[in-house]
Design goal:
Layout: E1 6-8, E2 14-16, H1 20-34, H2 42-49, H3 54-64, H4 69-81, H5 88-100, H6 107-120, H7 125-138, H8 141-151, H9 161-171, H10 175-188, H11 193-205, H12 209-219, H13 228-244, H14 249-260, H15 271-287, H16 291-294, H17 297-305, H18 315-327, H19 331-343, H20 351-364, H21 368-375, H22 391-407, H23 411-425, H24 429-442, H25 447-460
Length: 463
Amino acid sequence: MEGNTVKLDKWGYPVRTSSDSCIDAINSYYTEFLSHGRKASVIFEAVTHDESCVLANTLAGYLAYPLDLSKSQVHLSSAKSQLENATSYEKAVFAAVSSLVVKNKDDQLTYDRHSELLEQFPKDLASLKRGHILCFFMGRPDKCLTLVEKVLPQNEKQGYIHGIYCFPLLELGRMEDAEKAAKKGLEINKDDIWSQHGFCHVLQYECRFKEATKFMEENSSSWESCTSFMLTHNWWHVAVGYLDGHSPISKVLEVYDHRIWKELEKSDASRTEVYLNAIGLLMRVYVRGHVISMGHRLKILVDCLTDQSVWHIQWHLDILILWALSRTSKITEAETLLKEMKSRKTNPSLQKGIQLAEGLFEYGQKNYEKAFQLLGPDFDTHDYKIIGASDEQLDVFKEVWYNVLLETGRYQIAIHEIKKQIQKTKGVPFLWHLLGRAYDHEGNKYESYISTYEGKKLESAYF
């Protein structure tokens, strides 16, 4: 029967469909998904070409979730109704995806299903990418590394896998290995966005800000076809490189205005993806003390963030929104958001996310002692990966904590913690500035650190 025709996808795995166009659309989706492309919606065309295709409907259900839950469920229901006729590969993908796109998902179950899928079908890099994203939001780079290492031997020469491999290595502090992985990915494909992103992380971690910014700007032409998140996130990295590298604040805000905020002018832009990087950058600018230079930008952004349709997309964004609302005296809205976040905390490990949210709510109102009581005397951003943020994204919360320590007179703790961070990151000019503030408040002499600080400032003043 024609309806029972089996065709092979780009991984070489069997898909039951009679439509070449359906397979072509599935393969195009794989490329878009792995490259962070803007046209992942091509998967819906696959369903149009063959409404009975289990794989097409399964992947469409994944893409529609969580922005359109009803649409996601329609596709998954369609896939389930045809499951009896599906190939073993399609059934494995359906099992993995169906456990992922539910309201109160079991992370371990979903991880196990992806692990089992990759054990049997190791060439499926799209499923590896889904597992990578799952592990990121679980705050478990170790589990992500296990998934990648499971399939790496069968995919050494494939594009995209080395960029995926790079990220958990970064999050586990294995910088030399991460750099090798990123470079390998770029050797295979210089336009591999995730490998570019990973290499930038390495450079910024090592305080090679001039090199990081130059590298990213030289590759920026390859970002135009990226999703709103990836495009603005890469420019976020450029702006952070300028900020950490002691460049004029005008260069940072120029990136914000013309590379991040301007993305919203595009008809296919994702607002929430832009807001995440916009507010993440403005918070950093604020914490660094450039309040006046920031001008009206935060107010304009907050006017957009009072729209509750952008809430509860992801925890990291909600926490940033909460700070912005409280900082601009939108206290009623902030309290509403915080209350809803608490009611949506289905995972006990997200209690840390609630504590961070409450601390930032107080910090935004300059209630520094309350913020300290919530963040605690031994605040460690490693405990907050569960909110869905990288180490570099979490760094700003550590800087908030340092400021809280200084504002509440806990200078000895601040000195101790800032020194630890300087040693870990080889030093960022702002950290030396904070250390100087702490010593000034203590009334201790700072001469032994002045020469080192000046040297670091000169090393970092690249722009």
